[in-house]
Amino acid sequence: MVRSTPKAMALGAKIRTERETRSMTQRNLARKLGLDSGTMSRIETGERPPTAELAAAILGALGVTGERREEILTLARGDNTSGTAWVAVGMPEQRTQLDALLQLEQLAGVVVDVNPLVIPGLLQSSGYTRAVMRAARVPDNEIETRVAIRMGRREILTRPNPIKFTALISANVLRQSVGGPDVMADQLDHLLGMARLDNVELRAFPVETDWHDGLYGPFTVLTIAAGRSVVHLENRVSGLFIQDDHDVADFEDAARRVRDMSMSEEATIDLIEHEARRMKKGTE
Hints:
By secondary structure, the chain is an alpha/beta fold. It has two domains: 6-77, lambda repressor-like DNA-binding domains (434 Repressor (Amino-terminal Domain)); 85-282, Endonuclease, Chain A (2-Layer Sandwich), CATH 3.30.870. The chain has helices spanning 6-21, 26-33, 37-45, 52-62, 66-77, 93-107, 126-135, 140-153, 155-158, 171-175, 181-195, 245-261, 265-282; strands spanning 85-89, 110-115, 164-170, 200-205, 219-223, 229-234, 238-242.
């Protein structure tokens, strides 16, 4: 079985989006290109990344022009079949990485998110997400679209056959008043609801500790088919996918160590309930 890379998945996802926007089936597109529908399917899932020449032919058959065409061709011209990491700096490459992340989240069976700074995106309320984006100076005309995308990502937690999601967050994250007491109280109530899902494990790691793996910064481990995993890291201006097996194993070990020193799920829920009451008092 071909091991799809995150970049190949992003390229395939962009091609699929362009095809679906034009209401064209995989079979019809494949016929126009002289391909079989199975090949077209593998291109869109990232199992068979197209050459730049084939990508250009696909975009021509779809009538994709302008900046969108050039963005996809730039991605196709890179190495989409190998490599140990994929670094994206600035837009539009960060948007391309987001496409890959969304695709990987849909395919994953298990996702582990370690975050000492904010509540993981899959567990955020819309108000919390909006407050974080405003604080990060996201342009006003982009905020609602980004909020909608993030809220849509949560579907993988509640769909039939949902992913198994583990969130390991700093206890300090639960005590911050992001967006003000009203917004934070709503976020904490949302967390309580999500924490009661059978497929969601939420644990807070205590603040009163020595240095540990959870303090190096946020990271996400996504386990896809046959136990294969990739790691995603993100900061203010860049994103990084790590796919080298040895490096990924280091992050998996770090996540296990953070989980081992974190509070129990029951104690975490107690802490969230306590902080929710405190926030609600602040709104009176």
